């Protein structure tokens, strides 16, 4: 199985274009797919990594196109192109993202999905005996780490010095608050023996992949009756709560690893809407 978890969107786009040129598509269809997927990748951000691409990103893209005044026929054509791209991601990178429905109408995303304290409490209670999921949920809710970074964490990325924990990533170091550290240490105490360097592994010692993690967390969301939430909303909740507690856009961008402040500023829209 191919697993280049930290490929950037720019690299994925290049690979997809090469893939298209090897397919038995008409020249018109291939050109349409390439132009739309290129448009999506530029919209989402060429610098971002593979695991930022989600149902939310494709939905936001369609909202953007709708605002640009594309006709229904053109929007449906672009949906087909994006869905072809999602097929490619599933086959090449083992990433599963729901298709854009052919008869769906783009909706304005005026809010990000923020988990309430009650929902977080229900989720914690539900997964308290699943130490791996508990550790991951705490990291996403309280550290600012990205989902793709969690999947790719290595044992050597975790540092423990004088009872203080941190995660050393390629572009930043993330200090761990007490409960995140406590739950990570609990998981490490029972982590299956594995020759793999990855910090999070399956029961058989195989590195955890994004598909299985999303499936597991979605099951917990369902059991906890947390509706319309995704794995990525845990990190969104962290960023929004940091803003609400008074952190600056620059501070959040740094800890969250955003290379562009525009990415962080989207959370201001939520704060302003919430205030109204």
Automatic annotation (TrEMBL):
The keyword Transmembrane appears for this protein: no
CDD domains listed in its UniProt record: DNA_BRE_C (cd00397)
Domain Core-binding (CB): 7-90
Keywords: DNA integration, DNA recombination, DNA-binding
InterPro entries referenced in this protein's UniProt entry, alphabetically: CB (IPR044068), DNA_brk_join_enz (IPR011010), Integrase-like_cat_sf (IPR013762), Integrase_catalytic (IPR002104), Integrase_recombinase_N (IPR010998), Integrase_SAM-like_N (IPR004107), Tyrosine_recombinase_XerCD (IPR050090)
Gene Ontology biological process terms from the UniProt entry: DNA integration; DNA recombination
Protein name: Tyrosine recombinase XerD
Higher taxonomy: Bacteria, Bacteria division CPR2
Family: Belongs to the 'phage' integrase family.
Top-rank taxon: Bacteria
Domain Tyr recombinase: 110-276
GO molecular function: DNA binding
Keyword DNA-binding among UniProt keywords: yes
């Amino acid at each position: 199985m191919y697993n280049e978890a930290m490929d950037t969107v720019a690299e994925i786009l290049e690979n997809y274009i090469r893939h298209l040129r090897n397919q038995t598509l008409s020249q018109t269809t291939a050109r349409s797919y390439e132009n739309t997927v290129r448009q999506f990748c530029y919209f989402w951000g060429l610098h971002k990594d593979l695991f930022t691409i989600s149902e939310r990103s494709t939905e936001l893209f369609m909202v953007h196109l709708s605002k640009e005044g594309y006709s229904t026929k053109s929007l449906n054509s672009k949906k087909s192109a994006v869905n072809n791209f999602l097929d490619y991601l599933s086959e090449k990178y083992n990433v599963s993202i729901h298709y854009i429905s052919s008869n769906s109408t783009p909706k304005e995303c005026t809010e990000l999905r923020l988990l309430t304290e009650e929902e977080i409490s229900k989720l914690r209670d539900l997964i308290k005996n699943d130490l791996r999921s508990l550790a991951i949920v705490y990291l996403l809710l309280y550290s600012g780490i990205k989902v793709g970074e969690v999947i790719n964490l290595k044992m050597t990325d975790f540092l423990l010095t004088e009872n203080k924990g941190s995660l050393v990533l390629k572009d930043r170091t993330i200090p761990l608050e007490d409960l995140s550290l406590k739950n990570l240490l609990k998981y490490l105490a029972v982590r299956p023996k594995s020759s793999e360097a990855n910090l999070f592994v399956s029961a058989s010692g195989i590195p955890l992949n994004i598909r299985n993690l999303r499936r597991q967390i979605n099951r917990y969301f369902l059991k906890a009756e947390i509706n319309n939430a995704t794995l990525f909303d845990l990190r969104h909740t962290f960023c929004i709560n940091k803003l609400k507690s008074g952190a600056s856009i620059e501070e959040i961008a740094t800890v969250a690893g955003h290379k562009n402040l525009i990415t962080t500023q989207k959370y201001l829209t939520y704060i302003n809407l919430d205030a109204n």
